[in-house]
Design brief:
With 182 residues, the protein is an all-beta fold. The protein has strands spanning 17-21, 28-33, 41-42, 45-54, 61-62, 67-71, 75-86, 89-100, 109-122, 128-130, 149-150, 154-162, 166-168, 171-180. It is elongated, with a radius of gyration of 21 Å.
């Protein structure tokens, strides 16, 4: 089949199917299908969500604006990064984070009290902090369900913590990557 280039919308009354052909075996695999609903039904497609406006507290402790992200049903969180939108200013101290299924919980990303800032006074604007997801036991007699997976829609709470008072709250965005399973 040759390549075609055209302008204008692509229309079909019976939907579209996107396929992948194995170069060695010639086997055809469906990558995406709109079927008759017109909605793309992909398996294992990566999505990105955000929890914005999470600030450093003016007194030591949890953020006064804990971020919330609605994780869709049948998805697995695969990565979380924290982006510094506006630099906070604190007395010499620490800024950390936690991500959980409850406010101030750490079920998805364990509490890290000084990973954004360790004994400093500010975070450079546009800094990116890479987090580590909580790992499940892999070699038990019964492997537990992953805390990153949910079969039902749920709220994920993203928290910034600080050990000393802040004079400027700053602002952070949590960038959450997840994969749709079904």
């Amino acid at each position: 089949m040759g390549n075609s280039t055209f302008s204008g919308p692509v229309r079909s009354e019976n939907g579209f199917t996107v396929i992948s052909k194995n170069a060695t075996t010639g086997a055809i695999t469906t990558v995406a299908n709109t079927a008759s609903t017109g909605i793309v039904t992909n398996k294992y497609v990566k999505h990105v969500g955000f929890a914005t406006g999470v600030t450093v507290n003016t007194t030591a402790g949890d953020s006064p604006t804990i971020g919330e992200f609605t994780q869709p049903a049948n998805t697995i969180i695969t990565d979380i990064k924290i982006f510094c939108d506006t630099s906070p200013v604190i007395g010499t101290g620490d800024i950390g984070y936690e991500v959980g299924t409850s406010s101030s919980g750490a079920q998805i990303v364990a509490a890290q009290t000084d990973e954004i800032l360790d004994g400093g006074t500010t975070v450079v604007e546009h800094n990116v902090t890479v987090t580590a997801l909580v790992l499940q036991t892999q070699d038990g007699t019964t492997a537990p369900a992953s805390v990153q997976y949910t079969s039902a829609e749920r709220t994920i709470y993203c928290n910034i913590t600080n050990t000393v008072d802040a004079t400027t709250a700053g602002s952070f965005t949590f960038i959450i990557e997840y994969v749709q399973i079904a």
